[in-house]
Specification:
Mean pLDDT: 84
Order of helices and strands: HEEHEEHEEHEEEEEEHHHHH
Number of domains: 2
Structural class: alpha+beta
Number of helices: 9
Largest sheet: 4 strands, antiparallel
Strand content: 15-25%
Helix content: 40-55%
Low-confidence stretches: none
């Protein structure tokens, strides 16, 4: 029950923030908002305030704001062009559309900012805890307890930075490490060796290694509000880039489609992170918010990114596409969205069945 409640709250907050972005920008640019809905399908409860109906709908898998004169089939019925979405300038429409994903990115920044400023960050220092026998590290005389200060003249602050630097090199090349051992500081040169391992996407690949393991030491770092804000922006930027890479690898087949999860998987993960503590749940919510923002700016029909492409075409043509063409594009987009939703639901069900240990 707790898992279900947490999942509904997390997903509901992300949807609300996304649609609020569209809602506020539409209001700011003078477009009438007819409906603000959390969920799709039949209306469960709601109320009307001003010119907008606020409702909670049956299917909690998303949300929407219905704008006056938004859909192609409603354009001929528009009586007040000044308040209609379709008659706004392309860049006005683009602002309204992009505001949803931007709201999700902003939410992620605010959550990470709060966490970094209040809780701080934890890092594993670039200190050697164990040397692998017959490894490049052992051959050059490195020892447990040695602290790695620099790699090829670049300062490293954590073991994660060291690993990232080494794995960014596809072809082995000589590496110069600046080492601190007690009161001594010296440099060593070594050649990484290639071994098979799994990357962050779960794909088996060949990576360069030097044969060391991290120490068990963990350093807690506190941050003032300004540095915490900078770290939050950096974190969201890193996550955004990582998600785009994952999407590209998904289309190229490097990441199996079976790894995708839908609402059930998200709900299960939300419940698990909630048990770990509020900071973990907040962090998970921020990561999901970035995911939602990235997915929505993909240039696919029905998504916000698909609308942006249409507005770009409209700008180049000096006029919008014909109503028939727009309707066809949206129908194709709807089919794609339904197909993707069914696919991730299928993955969710398979994961559930495996979790129940059914034959």
């Amino acid at each position: 029950m707790i898992t279900i409640i947490v999942a509904i709250l997390v997903i509901g907050i992300l949807i609300f923030v996304h649609e609020l972005g569209h809602f506020l920008s539409a209001k700011l640019l003078g477009v009438r908002v007819e409906i603000f809905s959390l969920g799709f399908g039949p209306r469960l409860i709601g109320f009307t305030a001003g010119e907008t109906e606020y409702r909670l709908s049956l299917i909690p898998l998303g949300g929407y704001v219905k704008l006056y004169g938004e859909h192609p089939e409603t354009v001929p019925l528009v009586e007040d062009p000044e308040r209609a979405f379709a008659f706004k300038k392309p860049w006005h429409k683009a602002i309204i559309v992009i505001s949803g994903p931007l709201a999700n990115f902003l939410l992620a920044v605010l959550i990470f900012w709060f966490l970094f400023a209040s809780v701080g960050t934890y890092i594993v220092p670039a200190k050697i805890g164990e040397i692998i026998p017959n490894s490049p590290a052992e051959k050059v005389g490195l020892k447990p307890g040695d602290e790695i200060l620099e790699v090829n003249g670049k300062r490293v602050k954590s073991f994660q930075e060291l690993v990232f630097f080494l794995r960014s090199k596809k072809i082995p090349e000589s590496v110069t490490l600046k080492i601190k051992r007690e009161d001594q500081i010296f440099e060593v040169n070594l050649m990484p060796e290639i071994k098979e391992d799994y990357n962050i996407f779960g794909k088996k690949t060949k990576i360069p290694v030097i044969g060391i393991k991290s120490s068990e030491e963990i350093i807690h770092q506190k941050h003032d509000p300004l540095s915490a804000f900078n770290l939050a922006i950096k974190k969201v930027a890193e996550l955004t880039g990582l998600i785009f890479v994952a999407i590209c690898k998904l289309f190229t087949g490097e990441i199996p489609f079976s790894t995708l999860g839908g609402p059930i998987t998200i709900g299960k993960m939300a419940g698990e992170t909630a048990k770990m503590g509020f900071s973990y749940l907040f962090s998970f919510t921020a990561i999901l918010s970035v995911n939602l923002g990235v997915i929505n700016i993909l240039p696919l029909p029905m998504l916000d990114g698909g609308h942006l492409v249409l507005f770009g075409i409209e700008t180049l043509r000096k006029k919008p596409l014909s109503l028939k063409t727009q309707e066809l594009i949206f129908k194709i987009g709807l089919i794609l969205i339904i197909a993707l939703s069914l696919a991730v639901f299928y993955n969710d069900i398979l994961k559930l069945l495996k979790g129940w240990n059914l034959p």
